[in-house]
């Protein structure tokens, strides 16, 4: 033990341990003076740490008792009277007394010599292992530790060396250094070191786990932020800077929209979603379409209901000639509708051949009721989705036609014309009929769900009018909800009136002409109807008149655009306008022949005549039917044959005739499908004629169902049939007696020029039809 007087350098916040080489600045004059004093002597000074670093001029009590006797290796003078020192800690030194003078600190220091302590080998081994373990844990918990240092610490070396290096190398606080410095024995120092290492390791671990937690949180938000920024810059780079600018406009519209709360909420949700999608993506296009559809639908918007029957009648009469029965039924319907709850009224269905004014009547009704008019064409609709929409998950999904129609109308109570409802069909893609039922059924249509829209839409205030050519193909449940109004074919006279009073004027104005430019004579008009068109309605006629008007317009222009030019279309110059006559009267066919009888048929396009041909040839009694006939018609032919066989003896036919002959029935135009029972008596007549060899009168045509006993049953479509007979140049028609009232109801014009014979059994038919 040795007491020495030496300069004392107080340190604020560092400490030097024996074995450490340290580089630090000394700023305070007392410290600088002490260094200088040491340099003048043997360069030894005691470096001792202050207990409180903020004390500027520490007294003896402000310093720790133990410091380090240090060799000052190098001093560099720095600007501002400070010095930079490189010092090497040598031994521990205890400050016995301190002399604090103005210039320099001097102290009496007990320099502690390091004694070689003898530790039993096993203990040394245990200590070594423990320290090594602690160091490993410490290094593991501090991944930021200098790699070289970590390697150096963990290298295999004797305990003393390990201990000394650890003390020097492991970063510690001044307080920890001080604890180590103050440990007198190796044991004490070892314990202090282990506890410091343990607590440092623990702190590092806790720090790390807190750090990890915070980091994952920060990481995620930071990652999102960075990705978003990246997308933004990529878009900018691509010149796609829009980020759904429509969203605000939609929000504004949604606020102004008059719709139920549920709808508004849904729209708001969709807009919020829309905002977060990139403007030109496919997803945005889907969202935009959907939002626009929802915004465009008339949720609560309705026109005022007006029902002025007088006005309705005026408009119907203004636009349509004739059709008195139809007009009456429509007016009755409107009256009932005005008096009752609208939801309960049935749906009008106008049934009749093409071109008879069904669509045009519906349009007039809309005008009369001042309703918005939308026409939905159902012809050829096979897919249920066309009515009920596609789900939005499909590419290019759209709302169904009903919703699209409602959107076009812009109000929830328009008049919706469901055109050609009989042409709807079903296939594997679903049942169009039942979808339509949901639309038309008053019980269900107040919340009709379209797959695209998804929110129920109220159709109960829509006024539906349907049109069809025939009721045969309309599903039964739909018919049950409809009020069928038949629109019949027009007679020649009716067509003349319609042409003169409506169609001609319409075509003139369509083609920029006036009545002063073009006139059609009565005879010419008649020739157009009989020679150039063959139809139940007036669509072809209208087209022909349009053709004439166009040719006339051209002629006027060719003539220098002289508006005062007046063209007259007559029977003689009609071919200039329409070419040669297309249909000649069927005079030739009225010759009488054996085995050929003329029937009258009703088709969805109007009436027609059809001839039944029967051939008899020697054979084995077989029976053949050709001509694309339906089952009902085939059975009707068989019934006819059985009847003929049962009465053949009375007509002088040999008993074994049917065993030795084959019979072939053919109905020409084999490509056209035919069905129904109304050709029953015609087929039977042709057969008997063929079998007996007596001729069927050429001027006679017939219609009626036959029974096995030869009775004649009533049939439908008489107006069309009689008009067809007239067109075919027939003058006598055989009609079932039970149809008498139907014939009597017809306009005189229809039956004029035709002799109607009522028949109630085959005997009467044969008496009228066969020549004797
Ligand atoms: P549909 O719907 O029955 O097939 P449209 O209503 O399209 O027939 O009629 C075809 C054309 O004939 C329309 O221009 C219509 O105005 C006209 N038309 C039909 N019937 C009449 C009529 N009774 N009076 C006046 N024009 C008529």
Query: What is the CA-atom radius of gyration, in angstroms?
Result: 56 Å
Number of helices, where a helix is a run of at least 4 consecutive DSSP H or I residues: 27
- Shape label: elongated
* Count of extended strands: 24
Main sheet?
7 strands, mixed
Q: pLDDT below 50 for ≥5 consecutive residues: which ranges? A: none
Q: Helical amount among residues, as a percent range?
A: 40-55%
Mean pLDDT: 86
Structural descriptors:
24 strands; 7-stranded mixed beta sheet; binds adenosine-5'-diphosphate; elongated; 772 residues; 5-stranded mixed barrel; alpha/beta; 44% helix; single chain; 27 helices
Secondary-structure map with pairings?
Elements lengths: L1 E10 L9 E6 L2 H12 L3 E6 L16 E12 L5 E18 L4 E8 L8 H21 L5 H8 L4 H11 L4 H9 L3 H53 L7 H11 L4 H15 L6 H15 L12 H11 L4 H16 L7 E5 L6 H11 L4 E5 L6 H5 L12 H9 L5 E5 L12 H9 L22 E6 L7 H5 L1 E5 L5 H19 L7 E3 L1 H11 L6 H20 L8 E3 L4 H5 L14 E2 L1 E8 L2 E13 L4 E4 L4 H17 L9 H4 E6 L13 H13 L2 E2 L3 E3 L2 E2 L5 E2 L4 H10 L4 E5 L3 H6 L2 H4 L3 E5 L2 H8 L3
Parallel strand pairs: 1-3, 7-10, 7-11, 8-9, 9-10, 12-13, 15-20, 17-18, 20-23, 23-24
Antiparallel strand pairs: 1-6, 2-5, 3-4, 4-5, 5-6, 14-19, 15-16, 16-18, 21-22
Helix pairs in contact: 2-4, 2-6, 5-6, 7-8, 8-9, 10-11, 10-12, 17-18, 17-19, 21-23
Bound molecules: adenosine-5'-diphosphate (ADP).
Describe this structure in words.
- It is a single chain.
- This protein has 772 residues and is α/β, with parallel strands linked by helices.
- Helix content is 44%, strand content 19%.
- The strands form six sheets. The protein has a seven-stranded mixed β-sheet. A five-stranded mixed β-barrel has the order 1-3-4-5-6. It has a five-stranded parallel β-sheet with strand order 8-9-10-7-11, with helices on both faces.
- A hairpin with a 4-residue loop joins β5 and β6.
- Adenosine-5'-diphosphate binds next to α12, α17 and α19.
